[in-house]
Amino acid sequence: MAPLRVIVSQQIAAPAGTAADVPVQLYRGTDPQPGVELLLRGAGAIPGGATQDPVAVTDWRGVATFRVLAGNTPGTYRLTVAMPNGPPLGPTTRIDFITTAVAAPPTPPPPRPVVSDGLTRFTQGAELHGTAGNALPAPLVLEVRDTTGAPFVGQPVVFTATGGVVEPAVATTDRSGMVRVRVTLGERAGPVIVGAKVGTLTRTATVYADPGLARALVLERGGAPLGGGQLTLTSRDTVVLRVTARDAHGNRTALDAFAATTTGRAVELRSTVMADSAAVVTLAPRRSGTGELELSGSGVRTRVSVTVALTRGQQSAWAIGARSAWLGSNHPWIALPNLTGVSGVDWSVFGRRALVAGLSLALGGAAGSLSADRTTGNVSLVLVEGYGRAELSLVPGGVVSPVLGLGGGAYRLKSADGGQTFYHTNTFWSGGGGVDVAVSPSVTLELRIERHWMRDTNQGHVATLWPLAAGVRAGL
Asked: Are the beta carbons of 194 and 185 closer than 8 angstroms?
C-alpha cells in the first residue's frame, strides 16, 4: 500500500492581530484521502494566538483547512502537518507561518485654517470714481486671510458686479492671499456694487461711475424732453424751458458757461437763470412767425427752431390802428343859415385794448376837412375830434366777425371862409357797426358805418354825421 503524502504551501504570511486559513491536501499515492483527521503542530505556540494546535478533517478532495491566529508578535513560526498523537507526515509538511507587523495608521493632515471673517476685506479700490462706460483707473484688491492672520493662498473667489463688469469673474488668491480684478463701469452714472464670494463669506465694495464730458444740451418743457429741435407756441403765455447737459451715454453732467439768445421778432428771451446745475430759460411769444433759440454751454452749442402760431383770441391785448372815413351824406348844421349839405373826409388814429373775449375799448383822435354847401356858396370847415369807443365782436376769434360799437367824445368845427370865423366846440355821441376781417394773426382790417350826434350847449342837437370808414389795426 502506498504511503500518505501531504501537499502544502511552504510559506504563509498574515499581519499580526489577524487570522489566516492554511489549506493542506492529503493523498495516498494519487488518490485523495477524505475523512482523515489532521493536526497542525506549532500553531498553538504563536504568541497571542491560539492556545492549542488546530485540528481539521479532509473533505472529499482530501483537503483540510486550518484556521491560524497570527498573534500579536511579528516573527516566523514553523508549522508541520501530523496525524493526531502521531509523527509528522514527512518533511514536505513543513510550513513557515510569517506574522508581519501591522502598519501604523497614517497621521491625518492638520485641519486647514478657516477664512477669517474679520480679516478678509477689500484693501484697495473701494470708493474709487471713474467715467461711465470705462474701466476704473486702478484694480480692485481683495485680501483673504485665515483665522490665524496668515494669507490664505490658493483660495477661489467669485466676483459679481451690479452696474458693471468684473474681470476675471473667478480668480485664486496669490501667495499674499490677494486677488486683483479690473472693474469696467456701466454706461449709467451712479454707484456700482462689486461682490466677492469666498466660500460662504461675502464681501462688497462700492465704486462710482461719474458722467463724462458734455456731448449734448437737452431741453425739457413741463418735465418732458423737447425733441426734434422744434418748439411750437400757440399761446402768449410765457414758456419755461429747463436745459441740462448730457454725456455720450445720456447721463446728466455739469453745465457751465451757459448762454442763450433768440433771433427774429416772434419770440423774446425774458430771462436765463442757473439752478441746480441746470439753466432755466423763460421765453415770451410776441407775434406769429418764426425765430430761433440758440443755446451754448459746457463746450456744446445747439439751436432750436421756434414757431409762434397765435390765433386771434391769443393776440396781444394791445393794438394800434388807423382809419379813413368819408362823410358823404350828412344832415346840415342847424346853426348855419342857408346850409344845404356837408361832405368831406377825416383820418383817425387810435389805441385799442381788449378787455374780455370780444369786448374792447379804443381811444383816439381824428382830423378832417369838410365842405359845407350853402345857397350862397361853399364854406370850408376843419373838424377835429377826440373820442372813446367800446366795440363788441360778435364772433371773437373768427376770420370775419360782425362788430357793434358805441362811443362818444368832443369835437371842434371851425371855418374862416369869407372873412368870418365861426366854430362849434362841444360833445358828440356815436353808434354803429361793421365787420372785422383778419388777414393775419396780428393784422385786422376794419370796415365801419357810424352815426355821430353832434351837440351844442346852447342849441342842443345841431347836426348828424354819417362816417363810412375803412382802416387797419395791428397787435403789439
From this structure: no
Q: What is the pLDDT of residues 5-17, one digit of tens each?
A: 888 888 999 998 8
Q: Is 466 exposed, middle or buried (0-12, 13-18, 19+ CB in 10 A)?
A: middle
Of the residues 187, 210, 233, which one is the last residue of a structural domain? 210
Query: Does one domain contain both 391 and 271?
Result: no
CA–CA dist 400, 435 (Å, integer) = 7
Dihedral sign (CA 325, 329, 331, 333): positive
Q: How many helices (H) and strands (E) does the chain have?
A: 0, 37
pLDDT digits (tens, 9 = 90+) for 324-344: 998 876 766 655 566 677 788
Do 407 and 354 lie in one domain? The reply is: yes
Average pLDDT over residues 86-99: 84
CA distance 252 to 132: 11
The Cα 470–Cα 350 span in angstroms is 13
Bridge pairing between strands 239-246 and 216-221: antiparallel
In a domain, 443, yes or no: yes
CATH code, domain with 379: 2.40.160.20
Residue 386 amino acid letter: G
Residue range 374-384: average pLDDT? 78
C-alpha 348/C-alpha 382 separation (Å) is 14
Distances (CA, A) of 132 to 135, 139, 249: 8, 16, 8
Identify the three-state secondary structure at position 31.
Answer: strand
Domain housing 56: 4-100
Are 11 and 65 in contact, with CB atoms under 8 Å apart? no
Instruction: Report which of residues 281 and 31 the model is more confident about.
Output: 281
Whether residue 26 contacts residue 4, with contact meaning beta carbons closer than 8 Å, is answered with yes
- Write the CB contacts of 471 (distance below 8 Å, at least 6 apart in sequence): 321, 322, 323, 324, 348, 445, 446, 448
- Has residue 19 been placed in a domain? yes
At position 473, the amino acid (one-letter code) is R
Residues facing residue 172 across a β-bridge: 156
Place of cell 376843419: 382
Cβ atoms 97, 12 nearer than 8 A: yes
Sign of CA dihedral 233, 234, 238, 244: negative
Q: Are residues 297 and 265 in the same domain?
A: yes
Q: In this structure, is residue 110 part of a structural domain?
A: no
What's the CATH number where 270 sits?
2.60.40.10
Pair (471, 449) in one structural domain? yes
Q: What is the pLDDT of residue 336?
A: 59
Write out the three cell numbers for 108.
Answer: 491625518
The domain total for the chain is: 4
